[in-house]
Design brief:
The chain is α+β, with helices and mostly antiparallel strands and about 140 residues long. The chain contains three helices and eight strands; from the N terminus they run αββαβββββαβ.
Length: about 140
């Protein structure tokens, strides 16, 4: 019986040691390297959520590329919504700083993307709140 209690204590000790190592490592990973996000809405259809409201896609957001400014045209990124700062939006990068873009319904027909900004659009143009509504987005995407 005493041996079983000693064995139980060693398992508990090992669990807490692992827990106190795993939690900081996981938090650091999710903050610095990548995190998982659920995509809702129709703005990125058919690439994401092709089934509509029946299902939501899950994506891995790569923080590392953003920190190294390694964003390319065609990449899908997550930004803080200009409409609601507590919400994130997922869009495709259409143009990078210095590019001149022909807009779809923006207040100017052509826009030169300023330094430190990108132009993003949803794949489903008729159902997307994107740069055509709010202009170039800050490069510090989330």
């Amino acid at each position: 019986m005493a041996q079983a209690q000693g064995l139980g204590k060693s398992y508990i000790k090992a669990f807490f040691k692992g827990f106190f190592v795993a939690v900081p490592v996981t938090v650091t990973f999710l903050d610095r390297v990548a995190c998982v996000a659920r995509v809702e809405g129709a703005s990125m259809q058919p690439s994401l959520n092709p089934g509509g409201r029946q299902a939501s896609d899950v994506v891995l957001l790569n923080h590392w590329s953003i920190r190294n400014y390694d964003v390319q045209r065609g990449d899908i990124v997550s930004l803080v919504s200009p409409r609601n700062p507590e919400q994130k939006i997922i869009k495709r990068v259409i143009a990078l700083e210095g590019d001149i873009i022909k807009t779809i319904g923006y207040k100017k027909k052509y826009v030169k993307v300023p330094h430190g900004h990108i132009w993003v659009e949803g794949d489903h143009h008729g159902h997307s709140f994107d740069s055509n509504a709010f202009g170039p987005g800050h490069f510090h995407v989330e």
